[in-house]
Amino acid sequence: MDIVFRCGNLAQRPAGALVVGVLKGERKLAGAAAVVDRRAHGALSALLARHDFSGAHAELAVLYPTGLKAKRVLVVGLGPRSGLSLHRVRLAAAAAVRKARELRAGTVVIPALGADRLDPAAAAQATAEGAVLGPWRFTAYRTKPGAPALKRVEVVEPGTKQAKSLAAAVERGARWAEGTVLARDLTSMPAGDLTPERLVERAKEVAHSAGAKLEVLDVPAMERLGMNAILGVGRGSAHPPRFIVLERGPKALRGQPPPTVVVVGKGVTFDSGGISLKPRDGLHEMKYDMAGAAAVLGLFAALPGARLPLRIVGLIPAAENMPGGRALKPGDVLRAMNGTFIEVTNTDAEGRLLLADALVYARRYEGATVVDLATLTGAIGIALGPYVAGLFTTDDGLAAELLSAGEGSGERLWRMPLWDDYEKELESDTADIVNAAASREGGACVAARFLKRFAGDLRWAHLDIANTAWAPADRPHERRGPTGYGVRLLLEWLTRRASKET
């Protein structure tokens, strides 16, 4: 689907569907809605006068008025004027464009929703993001895929001196959302079709399109580095683990290397729990346990055109956690890459083992800021529900950056404690540390404290996205299933960091 910006009169554009936004409780139309209403002989005003449409957020009405070149008008509610936000714009655009696909509209024209009340460029970007996210469906395994994808969405605003910035904003929003969609597609893949080896193939495709360097460590290479935690997790599978390294960034400027950011994504392509086998209910969803890795690949796919003065490194420890004759057993001890001996008390606490070696590897990037994303614990969902991911860091400045980026992207974070108190839960009678505490209480915090052992003195943050990587129910911008959470959050954060560097 193409998303483009156009200068012109929205009401004069030919399309399968024309979208306008209306604020809740306001009977006097303004902006694009007023322009369309005049050309449509008062059809929108009549809709409001009949009280058939309130303007509640993401509420939809379909009209077929005369006087327009578009075949139909989709009226979408923006909610009350107070509290109008970019995320509400994003959701409204997503709801409207999804409806357009269901109606087989083919093409859509839409204004930058909320541009008269919010920063116009930001509104244009949010509108473009919603236009990509809303109609997404994963149809690779459907013989009857349903309504075809839209061919084109045009974000249309009147001729303005801001045309250049609006066009750039629409391009940016589309690119960020397409990175999110790639992450959703990868997370949707059946585990039998996305083994660690095949995840490497997808990483090669992303690296090629993104102009990024790619290095893949196989089992012998990981053995030489002492990555025994990753190797232990993958031991029981017929598909050996891999460690994927992507790198993209500008050359040194005036002899100074660019600032480095390392993003680590947990890549468990299927998590059976290993010998500590998971229960049957929901086991099919464990193909989603590589959502952190998918977010890293989605991020790199969206980087071309971003022009960030940063060296960006992506690390993906990829493994399949399966039971078998060679599988890791409860009570086994692994020696991680930094020499720490880990007693494995639960083979279903495997993600933190992958991240342990990955974080030690990240320490070779001197002066880097490191963020990991992982579907790490069910406990984070108990704590926060499905709407906000957990943020763990001891760096107040980094926490503030990520929290702000979460609000800006609509992929929110909530800071969780990373206190020394949780260290006691990791004491082992056999080794330096256990991988899982005996008690389930505070599980997300204990897991994060385990990771801190391996992050050392890095400027580091851990994002537990186990509760946000897939949606339990349909939302305007997310269907039930994988969300691609983290791609737009990281892009927002990196863009803000880049503006400080220039």
Protein topology:
Blueprint: E1 2-7, E2 17-23, H1 31-39, H2 43-49, E3 60-63, E4 73-79, H3 86-102, E5 107-110, H4 120-133, E6 152-157, H5 163-188, H6 196-210, E7 213-217, H7 219-225, H8 228-233, E8 242-248, E9 260-265, E10 267-271, H9 291-302, E11 311-321, E12 333-335, E13 341-343, H10 351-362, E14 369-374, H11 379-384, E15 389-392, H12 396-409, E16 413-415, E17 433-434, H13 443-455, E18 459-464, E19 470-471, E20 481-482, H14 487-501
Parallel strand pairs: 1-6, 2-4, 2-5, 5-6, 9-11, 9-14, 10-11, 13-17, 14-18, 15-16
Antiparallel strand pairs: 3-4, 7-8, 8-11, 12-13, 15-18, 19-20
Structure description:
The protein has 14 helices and 20 strands. Helix content is 34%, strand content 20%. The mean pLDDT is 95. The two termini are 33 Å apart. The longest helix has 26 residues, at 163-188. It has 2 domains: 2-156, Leucine Aminopeptidase, subunit E, domain 1 (3-Layer(aba) Sandwich); 181-501, 3-Layer(aba) Sandwich (Aminopeptidase), CATH 3.40.630. The chain is of the alpha/beta class. The strands form 4 sheets. Strands 7, 8, 9, 10, 11, 14, 15, 16 and 18 form a 9-stranded mixed beta sheet that branches. A 6-stranded mixed beta sheet has the order 1-6-5-2-4-3, with helices on both faces. It has helices at residues 31-39, 43-49, 86-102, 120-133, 163-188, 196-210, 219-225, 228-233, 291-302, 351-362, 379-384, 396-409, 443-455, 487-501; strands spanning 2-7, 17-23, 60-63, 73-79, 107-110, 152-157, 213-217, 242-248, 260-265, 267-271, 311-321, 333-335, 341-343, 369-374, 389-392, 413-415, 433-434, 459-464, 470-471, 481-482.
